[in-house]
Design goal:
Layout lengths: L30 E2 L6 E4 L9 E2 L6 E2 L4 E4 L8 E2 L4 E11 L2 E11 L20 H11 L11 H5 L9 E6 L8 H8 L1 H15 L3 E7 L3 H10 L6 E6 L8 H9 L14 E5 H10 L8 E7 L7 E6 L4 H8 L8 E3 L21 E4 L21 H5 L6 H9 L3 H8 L9 H5 L6 H18 L1
Parallel strand pairs: 1-14, 9-10, 9-12, 10-11, 13-16
Antiparallel strand pairs: 2-8, 3-5, 4-7, 5-6, 7-8, 13-14, 15-16
Helix pairs in contact: 3-5, 4-7, 10-11, 10-13, 11-13
This protein binds iron/sulfur cluster (2 copies).
């Protein structure tokens, strides 16, 4: 970590934007969703190799039982969210469109919520490698949307020194409130998860970062922290994208992750509070991930809320439950800034889905505006970009299809597609869509080169 600038922490990062929060569900307690008629468990709902089925059609399974095993280190197992029977292993649609292999579980009539698989374990006796294997066995991935296997993120390279664990409770995307409610209702589990990550990483301190529109969650956490705890909580400015990993590290520690680098290179490891809550819940009981909290909100839904949803629940049935009768074009999966459209209502809730926004009217969020005007060189996108990139210049190069130059001269790959530049552009230039396309083309050329 030589050469790092250690400044006092601040309550924000340079640039960024202030979109309306629209956190309509932040006072609604987490509510459990009933089981759907069938649960669809895709074998690939994380970054890495798909899991391999270990069950067969017609087999009886209990709630929490492993039904697919990890197929390598960068892979995680899947567990049955319900007691029932394996109805099939077949191709099913995904949110992005192409089909993927999934295990279908049909619940037994009257199947209960009690988890019937797992056994208490004293993980304080496990060494580092055993702990990482135990984390992999839970099937937990980054629940903030990245879906990167948690155990891989915890297995930092040998010789790495981590001094600070950051728990990301910012939830800076408008509309979403699942993490907010978790911090109020499950602070103890989050703290247990943080303690486990501190043990694994050797970090001497942890900081929970929240935006200052979550004062009630801040107090709930402070109440649960003992005096002189190495874990602290800090309220940060409500600003998008406060919750992005690099921004949060800069805000809380003053350190800057190098271009193309990783947080561990500056002595930090960052995990979302939803991920930590699951870690703190599942590890002591040696259980697997079978459900998650999903915010369902927006003008097109009658019963908005934060729903504890069995993984594999078809979005159609979740939306039936909350009073919706539209099409997939009404939906945004995730937040409005970085979320994606949904190809079909028959796709299931997977580990990466933390929110569904239901619009009043049909709209495709990735539709190119037909009335984009030329760039007027106003510079607003430069003022908004949290990474101090030059979106205007990147946009001009994208329009000329000079994708290589975008990377070589203007660091396209550093762009994490936060959408701030598109949001502020008075000419409605779909900058972030241009950047996604450019990155995809560059990636393809690298593969075929
Ligand atoms: S989408 Fe990329 S270029 Fe635009 S503001 Fe975000 S990081 Fe910067
Ligand atoms: S905000 Fe839009 S119009 Fe203004 S400089 Fe950036 S790309 Fe050009």
């Amino acid at each position: 970590m030589a050469g790092l600038i250690h400044r006092a922490w601040r309550n924000s990062f340079p640039h960024g934007i202030h979109p309306p929060g629209n956190k309509f569900t932040n006072r609604l307690p987490i509510k459990r969703l009933p089981f759907a008629d069938e649960l669809i468990i895709p074998l690939s709902q994380h970054i890495g190799a798909p899991a391999e089925p270990i069950v067969h059609r017609g087999q009886e399974v209990v709630r929490g039982e492993p039904i697919a095993k990890a197929s390598g280190f960068v892979s995680v197992p899947m567990h049955s969210p319900v007691t029932g029977v394996i109805a099939g292993i077949e191709l099913t649609p995904t949110a992005k469109g192409p089909k993927t292999k999934s295990i279908i579980v049909r619940p037994h009539p009257g199947a209960g919520q009690k988890v019937l698989y797992g056994a208490p374990q004293d993980y304080s006796r496990l060494d580092r490698n055993e702990l990482i294997t135990a984390v992999q066995d839970t099937g937990i991935v980054g629940l903030g949307g990245a879906a990167f296997p948690l155990h891989v993120k915890l297995a930092t390279p040998p010789g790495t020194i981590i001094d600070t664990v950051i728990a990301n409770g910012c939830e800076c995307e408008p509309f979403l409130t699942a993490d907010h409610r978790l911090m109020i209702e499950h602070a103890d589990e989050i703290i247990s998860g943080i303690q486990l990550v501190m043990k694994l990483s050797g970090a001497k301190q942890a900081i929970i970062g929240l935006e200052n529109n979550k004062g009630d969650a801040f107090h709930a956490i402070k109440m649960r922290l003992p005096d002189k705890s190495p874990i602290s909580a800090r309220l940060l400015e409500t600003k998008y994208p406060q919750g992005s990993e690099k921004m949060l590290i800069t805000t809380l520690t003053g350190r800057e992750v190098p271009s193309g680098g990783f947080p561990y290179q500056v002595g930090v490891i960052v995990h979302n509070v939803a991920t930590l809550a699951q870690l703190g819940t599942l590890m002591p009981l040696r259980r697997g991930l079978i459900e998650r909290v999903v915010t369902v909100t927006g003008p097109g839904v009658k019963k908005p809320g934060n729903y504890l949803t069995p993984l594999g629940t078809p979005i159609r049935q979740l939306l039936d439950y909350v009073g919706f009768s539209g099409t997939a074009n009404h939906l945004i999966l995730g937040g409005p800034m970085m979320g994606s459209s949904v190809a079909s209502l028959d796709v299931p809730v997977t580990k990466a889905v933390g929110g569904i926004i239901v619009l009043a009217e049909e709209r495709k969020i990735d539709e190119h505006p037909k009335n984009a005007d030329p760039c007027i060189k106003c510079g607003r996108c430069l003022q908004a970009c949290p990474l101090k990139l030059n979106p205007s210049q990147l946009g001009l190069l994208a329009a000329k299809r000079q994708y290589q130059a975008m990377e070589e001269e203007f660091h396209l790959n550093d762009c994490f597609e936060c959408g701030c530049c598109s949001y502020v552009c008075p000419s409605s230039i779909p900058l972030v869509q241009y950047f996604r396309i450019a990155k995809a083309i560059n990636r393809e050329q690298l593969i075929t080169a």
